[in-house]
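Reminder: ligand-aware prediction takes two inputs, not one.
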Amino acid sequence: MKALLLIDIQNGFCPGGNLPVPDGDAVVPVANRLIRDGGYDVIVASQDWHPADHGSFASQHPGAKVFDKGVLSGQPQVLWPDHCVQGTQDAEFHPDLDIGSVDYIQQKGENPAVDSYSAFRDNDRGALTGLAAYLKAQRVQELDICGLATDYCVKFSALDARDMLPELTVRFVSDASRGIDREGVASAIAEMRARGIGIVTSDDILSD
Ligand code: VGL
Ligand code: ZN
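Here is what comes back for the chain with zinc ion:
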């Protein structure tokens, strides 16, 4: 079984959102083509889903500024602007994303005491989200990952897929993804490649 994992294609990470990724909304038409014509058996979307007092927000740390580096649950933590707060429009999927074709939505980042870049588990590796168990139950053997942001949630999800589901073939779809920081994207791609993750474009998939 082949699965597509769409990471955090939410208003908050698109232009006009609270933590906009440059050109973030450009992933939407590419993701929709993959959903429609990519030949996937299972489509999964993750959704960053924070309580208003989430510890990754600079607003929760007196004196801290947005994008300062701090620590949360023992892990290095960028202190983000408030984003993707549960129930707000910022947390909704991009309105043009074909969410009706998604089989399973994995919310993450609900525990205020720890961040969860990965759709599979918290950054301190304490709690699992349940996504690995879902993919196993679906007998997924091939997993393609894309979305927002390449240098954070996409990268951590892809690396966790390798670690937690070592029997899977994992690929990163570059043109269906955008990152926060240029250099961060380059090193994220190098890191994924070094860990055995295939780097492909949507054309490679759609022309199969
Ligand atoms: C993300 C920063 C904070 C992401 C989520 O989806 O990459 N980045 N929360
Ligand atoms: Zn977040």
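The longest strand covers residues 169-178. The domain at 2-50+86-206 is CATH 3.40.50.850 (Rossmann fold). We will return to this case in the review session.
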